[in-house]
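Support case: user asked for a sample of complex input and structure output to validate their parser. Sending the pair below.
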Amino acid sequence: MLGGLTALAVPVIIHLLLKRKKQRVRFSTIQFFLKQDQHSSQKRKLRNLLLLALRLLIFTLLVLAFARPYLSRTEAAANARKKQQVIFVIDRSASTQAMETDGQRWVRAKDRIQKMLSELIADDRVALVGCASKAEVIAGFAPPAGHSTVLNELLPTFETSNLGEGLRQASKLMVLGDPDIVSTIYVVSDLQRSATQSLASYPVPNGIEVKLLNVGDLLTPNFGIADLQVGVGTEAKPHLVAASFSDEDNAEVALELNIDGKAALSRTVSLPPGSSTNVDLALPALKAGWHDVRVTLRAKDALNADDTRYSALYVPEPTQVVVVETWSGKRVFDEETFFIATALDPSKGATNSVQTTYNVSKVTPEELVRRLSVNEGKSACDLVVLPGLSQVPAGSGRALTAFVPSGGGALFFLGNEISPNRYNSEFRDLLPAQLGAVEMAEEVGASWRISEFDTNTMMFAPFSRPNSGDLRIPEFTKRHVLTSAPGSAQPALFDDGLPLILIRSAGNGRVALVNTSADTAWNDWPKHKTFVPWLHGLGKYLAKKAGQDQIHETNTFVVGDDFEIEMGAAAKKVQFKFQSSGGKEINLMSDDEGRLRDANLTVPGIYSFRDAKRKEVRRLALNTPAQESDLGAISANDFQQQLVRVDEAQPPTLAASLFGSMSNKRNSLASCYSEFYSYFLSRFCWLIERERDDMIWN
Amino acid sequence: MKLVERKPRAAFRQPWADEVESRWDSSRHGLQETEMRSLRCQIFLDKSASMDFGEGDANKFHYGRVLAAVLSEVMVRQHDAPGLIVFGEQARQAVPTQASRHHADEILHLLSQAQATGGTKIDRSLFQIVETFSRRGMAVVISDFFTANDTALELLRLLNAQNQESIVFHVLAPEELDLPYDGEFIFEDSETAEQLPVHIDDFRNEYQRRLSEFSERIKRECVQLEIDYQQLRTDAPLDVALMAYLERRAAV
């Protein structure tokens, strides 16, 4: 490297070459150049010499900077001067709350850190990096004594952790520290497998030593609730998933279901080692509104944080449906509206919380008028279903004509023995079509089937998904000839183009006419799987219950995840209060899109949101991440092997060689070197600037 | 002596020929009148080495002698009596004044053979020539005035004292005025051969200031002595100089 000093000849040669280049010119008279120009010439000579000296110095510094000379020191001198720079990357995940034979992992972690802090000297510098779902600097570089208080007050979280992210944060922090002193990163963790999965994605710079303070065992038995589903109106039944992260054979665990603080279910299940088990939950009948659901697992295991799982359940107000039954008194399955009522409310009387959101009550045609009486502007039901009525009770047309425009829904089926003229007269303001004569399929040689249907309508929307059923299967053997009324729509047609279903709006309400019987007299539709979802969709449309399902979505979150709580488009810039069970109330303002952000929810539980009038508008459940239940860890050896380092065999970059450290030597207690390259380099850069300025000034 | 109308020479016709013609026409009615108005016009030409500076036609000495030649021709046409005095290392009456129509040819012949050499000495030899001027006349001084001390100014004062209507043509080359050089050079004085290293960029402004001051000093002296002063760039046409002469001549 020092051979580069031969480059000093370059500026000298340039200087000499430039010197010889003065040209001789004959001029008329030099009387105007005398005296002062001689001074200028001498000044210029001096400046040129100084410039030459400056350039020689610049070259010399550059060569020396690349040569990297150093002074070796004695070990005593090295030890006497040695300072340390330590960063503790502290795993704050939920798994550190696990109890082992030596005590809780978190307590052991803090004790070990405190012990190390006490062994450091006042000149040392310590920083703390907390590692949960995000890594953050808890305390920057400071004397060790300054961190004891911070450490004492530090608590674990209910989140996962990413140790790779923690190492990255620590490496960044190390760059800001003093590059001339010994630096070490201590990872204080239980080395849970889930926390070390992405270590390889966060390479650690060479020269930074990484040591481990392991506070967990390789295998700690644990059980946990991995999942809880209790949604109303969802396809899956309410259930929980209990998981075993133990090698114990057929471990017995007790499960308790608690709804709104009251025990609802108690069971003991046997969990094979390393497996998970689904446990169905039969929910009791629940009133409409929000409910807290809590499932607790009781077993001898290490971690309690994962033994309870929460869910916030919203039971919508059921749609009140009045079905007019003409054949009352018969066996229930002989009733004309048996299929309708069963499809809408299959578990009537037992529970209303699992499969349906309809509450069906049956009335005779005569009782219909009384049921439809509007009481202070509020109807007693949301939807009226009429099968084909051979006798239309007096006043029913009037009652329905008052009921529907006030916001109710009416669903007309047809059937044998109805009088089209009577219908056309009694329900003329409601029916979407005028009834004509009856047609029979055997007269035209083949039964009719549905050929066209509008999947943009609520009743047929479920059939836009794959494997939702084939609507072309049901057969229809009888129908009326219909003449559409103005303003009506035809969401479904037979294969010959005649309408099967017509709908229209009447005031604030909606009416649908299905051109078939309510039972299987004119069709076999109830036998097919498309009947129930179609009827539910039609019922929602007529009763104006669209959008209700959305309230059930995303009520359960995981601690540590970034999430936004949708309060609805109408809730823009609205103040909400939220509180946890047993917690204090906090105010939050929604943003321009009706979302609540930065709620800072860190503890599992149920949280309630109320508006300014203290009306509850939302509840949500927060749970520990399921992967924290698996306390399986990797070994310290595996951890070090998974660490990715910058490859030392590659030629270092210019910046690395100039600005990198000889940390292997520097960290060694046996020797200590002082390097001057950085000093030379900085002076080189400064002189370059000076020469540039000097040339500008000249 | 009869007046004979002279036709202008076609081979030599300058832009101011019409002016000359009109003056001739206006004065052709009386030889006596003409004889009474003719002047002795002495042309003083500097032939020192410093005048031999400038490239091609912009050479000061070349420019100066062309000017002298043209002036002598004009003077002859005006029935004035041109004469030529050259000065440099020494001064001499190279061509005495004479009002002869072929006299300009003699001056031209001498000018064509003249060379610029030696130093610029405006001294006793020149002054003695000036002191011989007994009659009122015109003096045209063509020089760069790069002399030692103030001898150039002494010449002008002497001419004034001798009742000479004087015009000074201060001839300078573009290289002297603009100094269009870059870098460092060794300048060699054309008269003394003295060498001096000069860094043009450092010194251009100062040089031009000094030259300007020098020219201003000569001009101020001319103004005081009621002498016409014209600074001529040798890359500029001669008409400026000739117009100046004619105006001065008309005033006499």
